C-alpha cells in the first residue's frame, strides 16, 4: 500500500498541498508583502527541496504579424529550502517579500499573481495561485490624473513586449494609451502613449509617444510613414506633484 501511495503521490494524487495566505489583496509598488505558506502533507512522506514564490503577469508579443500571449516572471523568491513533510502534517512558513518596482499596475487588461510552488523530486510540483492588485506610486497616480485633467481619456492599458531601447531592462512594458476628448489637444493629437519606468519610489521615467493628427496631404503621408510620432523621455519625481499638470502640458505642447 505504501509503495502504491508513493506512485499516486508522484502524479499528484494524495500528495502534499500548498496554500499561500495573504493578509490583504492590494499592494503599492515597492511595498512589503507579508504572508504565510501553508503546507499540508498527503498520504505519504515527501521531501521538499525548495519552496518558492513567483510574481507573474502576461504580455503580448508580436511575431510574423501575429500576436502571442507570453507569461513573464517579474520576480522569483526562495522562501525556504529543504523540508520533510510527513503524512497529514501541517506546516506554516512565514515570508516577507518586496513588490518589485518593475511590477505593472493592475489596470486595463493587466493581471498580476503570486504563484507558490513546492519543488518535490520525482513528482508533480504542487502549486497555488493568488491574484493581487498592484497600485500606483503617488508620482504615477499624479501623472495619470494630470493627463486626464488635460482632456485625455484612457483608451487602453496593456502589457507588451518591451521596445529595443528598454529590452535590456525588462522583457515587457505596460503601455497606457490616451485619446484627447476635450481641451487644447482635441483635434490636434490622435493619441498619447505613456510607459512608466520606475527608478525609485519617488522618481519615475516617462516614455511618451505623442501622435500628432494628420493635417492635409503632407500630414497623411507623414502618418503613413509614422513620421507624425514624437518620442520623448521625461523624468518626474515627488517634487513635481504640485506642478505635474503644468509640467506635462509644457512637454506635450512642445512636441505636438
From TrEMBL:
<dbReference type="InterPro" id="IPR009776">
    <property type="entry name" value="Spore_0_M"/>
</dbReference>
<dbReference type="Pfam" id="PF07070">
    <property type="entry name" value="Spo0M"/>
</dbReference>
<protein>
    <submittedName>
        <fullName>Sporulation protein</fullName>
    </submittedName>
</protein>
Amino acid at each position: 500500500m505504501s509503495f502504491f501511495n508513493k506512485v499516486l503521490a508522484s502524479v499528484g494524487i494524495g500528495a502534499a498541498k500548498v496554500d499561500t495566505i495573504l493578509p490583504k489583496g492590494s499592494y503599492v509598488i515597492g511595498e512589503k508583502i507579508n504572508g504565510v505558506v501553508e503546507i499540508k502533507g498527503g498520504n505519504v512522506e515527501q521531501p521538499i527541496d525548495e519552496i518558492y514564490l513567483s510574481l507573474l503577469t502576461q504580455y503580448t508579443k508580436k511575431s510574423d504579424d501575429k500576436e502571442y500571449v507570453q507569461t513573464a516572471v517579474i520576480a522569483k523568491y526562495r522562501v525556504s529550502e529543504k523540508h520533510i513533510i510527513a503524512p497529514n502534517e501541517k506546516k506554516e512558513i512565514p515570508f516577507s517579500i518586496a513588490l518589485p518596482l518593475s511590477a505593472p499596475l493592475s489596470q486595463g487588461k493587466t493581471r498580476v499573481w503570486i504563484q507558490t510552488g513546492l519543488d518535490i523530486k520525482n513528482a508533480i510540483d504542487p502549486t497555488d495561485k493568488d491574484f493581487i492588485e498592484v497600485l500606483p506610486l503617488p508620482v504615477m497616480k499624479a501623472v495619470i490624473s494630470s493627463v486626464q485633467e488635460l482632456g485625455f481619456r484612457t483608451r487602453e492599458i496593456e502589457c507588451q513586449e518591451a521596445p529595443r531601447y528598454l529590452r535590456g531592462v525588462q522583457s515587457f512594458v505596460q503601455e497606457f494609451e490616451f485619446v484627447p476628448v476635450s481641451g487644447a489637444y482635441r483635434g490636434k493629437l490622435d493619441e498619447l502613449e505613456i510607459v512608466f519606468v520606475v527608478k525609485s519610489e519617488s522618481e519615475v521615467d516617462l516614455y511618451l509617444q505623442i501622435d500628432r493628427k494628420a493635417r492635409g496631404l503632407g500630414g497623411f503621408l507623414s502618418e503613413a510613414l509614422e513620421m507624425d510620432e514624437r518620442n520623448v523621455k521625461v523624468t518626474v519625481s515627488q517634487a513635481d506633484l504640485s506642478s505635474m499638470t503644468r509640467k506635462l502640458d509644457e512637454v506635450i505642447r512642445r512636441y505636438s
